[in-house]
Amino acid sequence: MGSRTLQGKTAIVTGGASGIGSAVTRLFVERGARVVVVDLQEEAGRRIAAELGDAVVFLQGDVSDRKVADAAVATAVDRFGSLDVLVNNASVSRQKPFEEQTDDDWDLAMNTGLYATRNFMLAALPELKKTGNASVVNFGSGAGLNGQPNQASYAAAKEAIRGLSRVAANEWAPHNIRVNVVCPMALTAGVAQWAEARPEQYAQSAASVPLGRFGDPDRDVAPIVAFLASDDARYMTGQTVMADGGAVKLR
Ligand SMILES: NC(=O)c1ccc[n+]([C@@H]2O[C@H](COP(=O)([O-])OP(=O)(O)OC[C@H]3O[C@@H](n4cnc5c(N)ncnc54)[C@H](O)[C@@H]3O)[C@@H](O)[C@H]2O)c1
User: Fold this and answer.
1) Pocket of ligand 1 (CB under 6 A)
2) How distant is the alpha carbon of residue 177 from its chain centre?
3) pLDDT in tens, 194-226
4) Scanning 125, 181, 187, 216, which has the fewest C-beta atoms within 10 Å of its C-beta?
């Protein structure tokens, strides 16, 4: 048996049915957590819940909808008795040059990225306070830090998430609620689609990684999220952690 660093904790993982989110869900359960997975994809959600058994409840819904955030928190408390960890992983965007991005493109990036993160944090806050020892892990992106072309709305949403996370880290520290950000780089189905649409950008990104490859969601990214969620990271808050093979070095 691996380490049980999340034993007894209950988590919400948005977008937890596939990609990095499903890797996080699987590792959290392996390390002893119970997880409410919130995802749009009904079939993938049911599959991961069936795979992981009683430790996972799947809630089908759109993270942009505030009522879904409330329902996820209520589900965690009803089914598992508390909420200790919130992972805001889901987000979607469309890639095109800034001047071609429509209001609808901006709404998609902001609603699924920034506003979903805000709404889940606010919905979770009363329960996180009750635990006296909670962790929020939000997702940023190297695209925001680097100003990746074709990612204007996405980069703006992701950098706004980092700003929000730093404020919340300060405001919620008295409740011992830690708030950190992970910026991953991992070869998921979403990235594979992007690689297909923009092969030159993909090749350039992969070549710029000092460790020489796109990360593996299970082995390279999920363990960093699990660390931030665990008490091993009890003295870390307000940080951005790059899970990207060294592509970006924060100062
Ligand atoms: N994969 C990377 O290299 C990379 C790089 C930088 C940042 N990120 C960030 O990491 C996170 C995960 O990325 P990924 O590559 O695993 O993404 P992905 O597209 O593979 O998976 C996202 C998951 O979220 C779900 N989802 C999408 N929109 C939703 C909505 N409105 N409501 C509920 N669920 C929804 C999807 O069904 C899917 O299960 C995202 O925040 C992404 O921006 C990823």
Assistant:
1) 15, 17-21, 38-41, 62-64, 89-92, 112, 139, 141-142, 184-186, 188-191
2) 17
3) 889 989 988 887 898 999 889 999 999 999 999
4) 216
The residue among 202, 205, 182 whose CA lies nearest residue 194 is 202
Domains of the chain, earliest start first? 10-240 (3.40.50.720)
Residue with tokens 């665990």: 230
| Catalytic annotation present for 202 | no
Distance 172 CA to ligand 1 centre (A): 26
- To test the pocket of ligand 1, the residue of 12, 13, 14, 18 to mutate (highest count of ligand atoms within 8 Å of its CB) is 18
pTM of the model: 0.97
B/e letters for 165-203, b = 16+ CB within 10 Å, e = fewer, are bbebbeebeeeebbbbbbbbbbbbebbeebbeeeeebbe
The token duo for 38 is 């919130």
